[in-house]
Design brief:
Elements lengths: L19 H16 L4 H32 L13 H14 L4 H13 L4 H10 L5 H11 L1 H24 L37 H35 L2 H8 L4 H14 L3 H13 L4 H14 L1 H8 L4 H25 L1
Helix pairs in contact: 1-8, 2-6, 2-8, 3-5, 3-7, 4-13, 5-7, 6-7, 6-11, 7-14, 8-11, 10-12, 10-14, 11-12, 12-14
């Protein structure tokens, strides 16, 4: 008799390879169909229409990402962290708020900066600003929440980066910052970052390998943005259809510090993804959420979301990580208060 245990048959299909975000979309659609069949078509139609409305911004964003990857223009920032510490903090905050880095790319980039001797203050400025805003995020936020909200969030990202950087500069000689790094730092990031970055070449289309980089980066980011926004718009349709507006208005509406504090507290656990949060905030605003609470939610959630937090936790010791989170919440509350006054 053959020993079948030595040659196990491979399954015809590995369900573990199915994208979890797409599974979540399918589960939501199935739940609506089973529990509220009359609401199925309106909910799905609303989600798809919202996705179509955002499509031009997604397309522009993925083409821009592909261009930056293929030309190697991202590496221009690597030489910016030199000179006086004050200048490096300014560069770190601006680069973080405007750079196209994904959360996993932050880890090797920051590890390289620290290995090259960049001060922790400049790195903290970059860390705090980086998960809050990038070119695709700006376009999607402007398309969904308005240009003024996108600009305000960008300003808040840079301001929080500066606050964190200058805070560390002020206490750099304290024992609190002594030996801040973990003994080992990662040497690379996951598969989303691809292979070694190409040298700088603005006319990438003349080289076949760069054309391949452009296509792969554009398609992978199109899938990434598309799946998360589809999930977000499905959740938004559930929110609008099943959550009474007066509940949202009572908890997160109105003026004052209370809704802003609650928005910051809820931001961390409720934040799925920076891109997915934008339509959700749009739905919450339609239901009565205050402008200040919306801003504190996206700031606190963006900085403390799992990918961004892991990038910090992987490199620094817990007390520095706690400082990172503390600055994030203070910055979120201040941003919410400011935007609540002028928004």
């Amino acid at each position: 008799m053959a020993d079948l245990s030595q040659n196990p048959q491979k399954p015809l299909f590995d369900f573990r390879k199915i994208d979890r975000v797409l599974i979540a979309c399918a589960v939501i659609a199935l739940a609506i169909f089973v529990l509220d069949r009359p609401g199925f078509i309106p909910s799905i139609t609303e989600a798809l229409n919202s996705l179509a409305h955002t499509a031009p911004f997604i397309l522009f964003a993925v083409l821009a990402i592909g261009y930056m990857r293929a030309t190697g223009s991202e590496q221009l920032m690597e030489g910016a962290f030199v000179g006086r510490e004050t200048r490096m903090v300014l560069v770190g905050a601006l680069a973080g708020g405007l750079s196209p880095f994904c959360s996993c790319e932050v880890i090797p980039f920051v590890a390289a900066l620290l290995a090259a001797g960049a001060p922790l203050s400049a790195v903290m400025a970059f860390w705090l600003a980086s998960p809050l805003m990038d070119p695709p995020m700006f376009l999607i936020t402007a398309g969904e929440l308005g240009l003024s909200f996108a600009i305000a969030k960008t300003v808040a990202a840079v301001a929080i980066g500066l606050m964190g950087g200058f805070t560390l500069m002020a206490i750099k000689n304290s024992t609190f910052l002594a030996d801040p790094l973990r003994p080992q730092t990662p040497s690379g990031c996951g598969s989303c970052c691809g292979s070694a970055k190409p040298t700088l070449n603005w006319t990438f289309w003349r080289e076949a390998p760069r054309r391949k980089i452009f296509a792969e980066a554009a398609l992978s980011n199109l899938f990434f943005l598309g799946k998360w926004l589809l999930l977000a718009y499905l959740l938004q349709s559930l929110l609008i259809r099943y959550v009474p507006a007066e509940y949202i208005g009572t908890a997160l509406g109105g003026t004052g510090l209370g809704p802003i504090l609650l928005g910051a507290v809820l931001g961390a656990p409720a934040y799925l993804n920076g891109y997915a949060a934008v339509p959700l905030i749009g739905g919450l605003l339609d239901q009565g959420m205050s402008q200040g609470a919306a801003m504190s939610f996206v700031i606190a959630g963006g900085i403390t979301c799992i990918p961004a937090a892991v990038a910090v936790w992987a490199l620094v010791k817990p007390r520095i990580f706690a400082l990172y989170v503390g600055i994030a919440f203070v910055g979120a509350i201040l941003s919410g208060l400011f935007w609540g006054l002028i928004g």
